[in-house]
């Protein structure tokens, strides 16, 4: 079969051989050779297609195309000849894992029916099969679960494993509570005021109405009224009318509460999206990078920035969105689906990111630092209800974020002393802001 495959593969006009393509290194978030990652099953068709189209490194883009073509041709020949295709190959050299075996064993399994149990005990008892581990590698949202599944799969296959040396993770600096957190607090406080005020008002009105029903002219009291059938009926009518009035008052209050609840849920969803993005960035980048969260720049615009990423190769402003519904982005235009039609979105994440990039560049310039700031939008929904076509600025989907971060390249790097100055300025800004809150 190998001869047939090689004949088909090398008949194509390419400038890179299969062996050369296998030696090319993947992105910095998983910096190993394509051949090694492909043999493990990490590089599936979707990842290779993404790299062949979007990788900034032309060498990686070409190598991905070569490996993708080889994979397709191999599958076709195997199908024609009814031959099995093994997804993994035994490697003589140790396979480098991105997580230690101990860390892999203590990672929590996220899928039913064993959700919440340690992956190590599940793998050793073979309650999860090799197929289950392969499924986790491809589909687990948590990057730690994917890395743990790779390590345990290699262990189950009796592969030689080289565990990673401890590395320093990304530095995260926060400027205090985010805009979403502040809004949730305000809305929750407003709910309390409305409900408390409504209950007190209804109670006061009820007591006042009952007291007014006393008839001092005749000297009759409530106890006197209820002693006769007519008085009982009158008192019941009063109580019914009070309940009806209270119910009519509750209707608009209940509607207002539901509106506030929806707003709180939207802000909560946004905060959770920002937290998910921060965790992925933390695990994908090393200690040479800094992530500043919820920074508020001096000036009239007091809106905070979801994220500022500072590293050896540049500065990025991140606009993180967790919007409900189906959206699409073409150029700098954002639309959402309403029924069968597409309508222009009120918020434009691309322009928000660009405006924030300009604000940050101006802030640095005011501190005698001239630095280009790159804007980027991160779609933080777990479900990717977003289609992107020729975006004016980078738009990264959550499930591709580790690869996008590993794909970051720049024409020129930032000198260490300049990066230190930028980090120092933003750190002091966030500390001042955090002390105020």
Order of helices and strands: HHHHHEHHHHEEHHHEEEEEEHEEEHH
Low-confidence stretches: 1-14, 83-91
Portion of residues in helices?
40-55%
N- to C-terminal distance: 68 Å
Average pLDDT works out at 80
**How much of the sequence is in beta strands?**
5-15%
Number of domains: 3
Largest sheet: 6 strands, mixed
- SS field, number of helical segments: 15
What is the rounded Rg? 31 Å
Strand order of the largest sheet: 3-4-5-6-10-12
Q: Would you tell me the structural class of the helices and strands?
A: alpha/beta
Which shape, going by the Cα principal axes? Answer: globular
Give an overview in words.
The structure is a single chain. Helix 1 (2-10) packs across helix 5 and helix 10 runs antiparallel to helix 12. The protein has a six-stranded mixed β-sheet, sandwiched between helices. A four-stranded mixed β-sheet has the order 9-8-7-11, with no helix packed on it. With 437 residues, the chain is an alpha/beta fold. A hairpin with a 1-residue loop joins strand 7 and strand 8. The longest helix is centred in the middle third of the chain and has 56 residues, at 229-284. It contains 15 helices and twelve strands. It has helices spanning 2-10, 18-23, 34-40, 45-54, 58-81, 101-105, 119-124, 130-139, 143-156, 179-212, 222-225, 229-284, 349-366, 401-406, 416-436, and strands at residues 95-96, 161-162, 171-174, 290-293, 307-311, 314-321, 327-331, 333-338, 341-344, 373-379, 386-391, 394-397.
């Amino acid at each position: 079969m190998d001869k047939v495959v090689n004949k088909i593969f090398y008949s194509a006009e390419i400038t890179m051989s299969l062996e050369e393509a296998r030696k090319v290194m993947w992105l910095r978030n998983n910096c190993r050779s394509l051949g090694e990652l492909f043999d493990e099953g990490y590089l599936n068709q979707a990842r290779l297609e993404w790299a062949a189209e979007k990788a900034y490194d032309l060498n990686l883009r070409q190598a991905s195309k070569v490996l993708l073509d080889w994979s397709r041709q191999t599958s076709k020949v195997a199908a024609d000849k009814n031959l099995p295709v093994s997804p993994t190959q035994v490697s003589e050299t140790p396979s480098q894992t991105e997580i230690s075996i101990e860390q892999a064993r203590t990672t929590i399994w996220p899928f039913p029916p064993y959700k919440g149990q340690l992956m190590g005990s599940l793998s050793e008892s073979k309650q999860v099969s090799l197929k289950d581990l392969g499924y986790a590698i491809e589909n687990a949202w948590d990057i730690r679960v994917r890395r743990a599944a790779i390590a345990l799969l290699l262990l189950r296959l009796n592969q030689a494993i080289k565990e990673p040396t401890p590395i320093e993770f990304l530095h995260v600096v926060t400027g205090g509570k985010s805009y979403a957190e502040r809004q949730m607090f305000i809305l929750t406080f407003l709910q309390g005021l409305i409900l408390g005020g409504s209950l007190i008002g209804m109670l006061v009105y009820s007591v006042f109405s009952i007291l007014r029903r006393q008839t001092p002219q005749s000297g009759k009291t409530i106890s006197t009224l209820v002693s006769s059938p007519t008085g009982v009926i009158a008192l019941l009518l009063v109580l019914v009318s009070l309940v009806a009035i209270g119910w009519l008052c509750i209707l608009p209050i209940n509607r207002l509460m539901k509106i506030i609840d929806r707003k709180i849920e939207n802000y909560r969803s946004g905060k959770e999206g920002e937290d998910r993005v921060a965790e992925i960035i933390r695990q994908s980048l090393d200690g040479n990078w800094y992530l500043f969260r919820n920074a508020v720049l001096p000036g009239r615009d007091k809106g905070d920035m979801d994220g500022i990423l500072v590293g050896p190769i540049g500065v990025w402003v991140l606009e993180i969105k967790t919007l409900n519904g189906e959206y699409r982005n073409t150029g700098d235009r954002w639309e959402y689906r309403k029924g069968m039609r597409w309508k222009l979105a009120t918020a434009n994440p691309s322009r928000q990111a660009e405006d924030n990039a300009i604000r940050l560049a101006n802030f640095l310039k005011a501190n005698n630092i001239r630095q280009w700031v790159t804007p980027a939008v991160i779609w933080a929904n777990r479900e990717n209800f977003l289609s992107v076509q020729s975006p004016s600025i980078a738009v990264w989907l959550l499930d591709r974020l580790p690869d996008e971060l590993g794909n970051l390249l720049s024409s020129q790097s930032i000198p260490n002393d300049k990066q230190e100055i930028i980090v120092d300025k933003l750190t002091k800004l966030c500390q001042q802001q955090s002390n105020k809150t």
